[in-house]
Design goal:
It is a single chain. Helix 2 links the parallel strand 2 and strand 3. The strands form four sheets. The protein has an eight-stranded antiparallel β-sheet with strand order 13-12-9-10-11-14-18-16, with helices on both faces. Strands 3-2-1-4 form a four-stranded parallel β-sheet. The chain has 422 residues and is of the alpha+beta class. It is 31% helix and 27% strand. Pfam families: ATP-grasp_4.
């Protein structure tokens, strides 16, 4: 048994990439499944080789903590959004395990506390109100809608754009809040609803991926989302494009992201931020104290030679005395090619005919196709990023932006030909 081991909580999505990278350093990994990942749909079956928090530990945190101490766990990783809360708690209780500020840790996973922390630290953010029931909606919110403004409703605890809605009328606002507060929630428990100011158009959404150590915050990747709003008011993501480090907006986003990380008490580990920018300047709209999901770090590594996961594994190896200490934190990245993740979507319930992966594989610039849809199965209209992941995605590269646009459009068109309205 190793003198130092790493626990990965809910190793799904990008979290599945950690064990292989850590194995290159000879570091033992312990995998842990929790019910939160199951009920939220992040996984549908047990993770091979993983312990089960509910079955193996009787949902007892004390028993889990004892096992971690017995097996010399010296670092804990949140393998996906469902595992963040448990990961943060373990980091605070395990000896010699680096972690973030333990004061009000829920500001890193509950958006109600998150936006309150930003306001308290003087970090510019969108006007956000929390409500526990539809009856608690303030009259001013209804007045804003009647005055022609749009609002965004989202769960205080959520991920992957699930239940995030754009609303234009009082009736839509009430229904969107009720859907969140009256439902079970993405992680199997009720959530407050946040009513948030809509960032004024024109606006662009960016993903900013960082890694933090005791030496500061490092920028590893910035990408931009192309998306559209469906007839039901859902935000549908078409693709995420990696931006060059010398793009003028990257510096502004990096500076703002650093202020967010400080306000949320992030001291160690990766963080994934979704930031809107435009006439108001950067404004945080979502945050995850874990690596970018949907396997995004794998493509980032192909484009830049580094990623949040590779950086975190190198940091762990340094702490364990198994890797060379970095001379100084990296301050940026360089793209070898332009790249984008094309997220598949359908605008109405449709049946997948099968064969799209064979059609896409081998197209110019298509590096990877992950077709998740099953032939003959009918899928609902896409409402969130999780819905897109249930259909599939493709990683596309090109030498310049125009060529990338053409290749991505071709991929989306060809995928659409393999779905027929139900």
């Amino acid at each position: 048994m190793s003198d130092n081991s790493v626990l990965i909580v809910d190793p799904v999505s990008s979290g599945k990439l950690y064990p292989a990278v850590l194995a290159e350093y000879g570091i033992e990994t312990i995998l842990l499944d929790t019910a939160q990942a199951l009920v939220s749909g992040f996984r549908t079956a047990p993770t091979p080789g993983a312990l089960d928090f509910e079955a193996d530990f009787g949902s007892s945190y004390e028993r889990l903590l004892r096992m971690c101490r017995d097996r010399s766990v010296r670092y804990v990783i949140a393998g996906s959004e469902p595992g963040v809360e448990l990961c943060e708690r373990l980091r605070g209780d395990l000896p010699d395990c680096p972690g973030s500020d333990t004061t009000l840790p829920m500001r890193r996973w509950d958006k109600q506390y998150m936006f309150e922390a930003l306001a308290a630290a003087g970090v510019p953010s969108l006007n956000t109100r929390s409500v526990e029931t539809p009856d608690a909606i303030a009259a001013t919110a209804f007045a804003e809608l009647r005055g022609g403004r749009k609002l965004v409703v989202k769960p205080a605890r959520g991920a992957a754009s699930v239940d995030v809605r754009s609303v234009e009328t009082p009736a839509e606002l009430t229904a969107a809040v009720a859907a969140i507060t009256d439902g079970a929630g993405l992680f199997g428990s009720g959530s407050a609803a946040l009513i948030q100011q809509m960032y004024p158009a024109p606006r662009i959404e960016y993903a900013v991926d960082t890694f933090s150590t005791e030496h500061g915050h490092e920028l590893l990747c910035v990408s931009v989302y192309d998306k559209w709003v469906s007839a039901s008011g859902d935000f549908v993501y078409e693709r995420g494009r990696w931006l060059e480090h010398d793009d003028p907006v990257v510096g502004e986003l990096a500076e703002y992201a650093s202020r967010v990380l400080d306000a949320l008490g992030v001291r160690v580990g990766p963080a994934h931020m979704e930031i809107m920018s435009g006439s108001l300047g950067p404004r945080l709209i979502d945050f995850g104290a874990r690596a970018h999901g949907i396997g995004h770090p794998q493509q980032t590594y192909q484009l830049t030679g580094n990623s949040q996961i590779h950086r975190e594994c190198a940091y762990i190896a340094e702490r364990f005395g198994l890797g060379r200490p970095a001379a100084e934190p990296r301050s940026g990245y360089v793209l070898a090619q332009r790249g984008a993740l094309v997220l598949f979507s359908i605008d109405r319930a449709s049946r997948y005919l099968g064969g799209a992966d064979a059609e896409l594989t081998g197209l110019p610039g298509v590096r990877e196709v992950r077709m998740a849809a099953e032939p003959g199965r009918t899928y609902p209209a896409t409402r969130s990023m999780m819905d897109s992941v249930a259909l599939g995605l493709a990683f596309v590269v090109a030498d310049d932006a125009d060529e990338l646009d053409i290749r991505c459009a071709d991929v989306r068109k060809r995928v659409g030909d393999f779905f027929t309205p139900a």
